[in-house]
Amino acid sequence: MSSSPAITRPLPSYRQLQLRPRDVRGTSWGLFGWDDQLGSLNHLHPDRIRSAARLITEGRRINLNLPLTAFSKPLIAHRGHIHHEVFGLNEFHRDDRIDNFFPQASTQIDSLRHFAHPDRGFYNGTDPASITAGTAPLGIQNVAEAGIAGRGVLLDVARYRQWCGRPIDQDRGEQISVADLEATAQWQNLTLEPGDIVLIRTGWIEHFVRHNVPYAGISCGLEQSGEMAAWLWDGQFSLVAADNVALEAWPATNSQLPPARAEVKGALPRSSHTGMLHRILIPLLGIYIGELWDLDELARWCQCASRYAFFLTAEPLHVRGGVGSPANALAIV
Ligand code: UVW
């Protein structure tokens, strides 16, 4: 799989998705083909990538990844801390090994096998039995094979909110609204375009990592609402990533999204995943998302240059059947 096919017909809006036939209602299933593995990455047309390359004016590279070892105490309890061993076959040689590696423990991209919707299943109706280690469906290797490159745009919501006298309260798990995203873009004089790789800076990394504030398991992030899902789908963005724990606010206790039918009926116990935007974005819409992207240096450059668009690449690990991966993301300005 070397490049995405061009989309030859207009895509339905999020509102129109809700009017699709019952078995695909509210989903993008089949719109990119029933065997599609790339979802929103189909928006990375070759002409968009060529035009994004023209944004490279200085030739400066800005790393967007935290170290794999950034969190000695895991942010999500079940994701442990890596053990890195350096050894040598003799005194003139070194090799290394990493054990206990959780690919989503630091800066990451989630594959489309990360979440299923409890009532609807995995993206494109993929058989859950096919989602195991080493199998291809929806695995992160699809992204590694296609590659990510295109126009990155930064929405520095943290700085916008500071500027307008409403700084984000990092301890409250605040929900960032569509209105805030749009106001930030307008304040930055940025017009969002189809195919954009949208990076949202909430200030989480600056607060909890750079200023070393103890993290109590509460993170600001995108509001869990139909309006947010509509904004992300209708914008035809290729990928959306943020500098926080889950892209969306965490935990999802103030979600405006309804629980799954199975949860309402009691067939599935409610959990920390109830009400998550992940359940809409990944399995229903096929939108690739990223978390814990380090956007602070990029934000400084954007502010100095008064420019919020740049060339961006990301290349996840080529792990067949991988669920998530370090993002290996780079802005080139
Ligand atoms: C959460 O579940 C909080 O986020 P993710 O698994 O996508 O890292």
Automatic annotation (TrEMBL):
Gene3D superfamilies: Putative cyclase. Signal peptide: none annotated. GO terms for biological process: L-tryptophan catabolic process to kynurenine. Pfam families: Cyclase. InterPro entries: KFase/CYL, KFase_sf. The keyword Magnesium does not apply. One of its GO terms (molecular function) is arylformamidase activity. Keywords: Hydrolase. It comes from the Bacteria. PANTHER family: PTHR34861. This is Putative metal-dependent hydrolase.
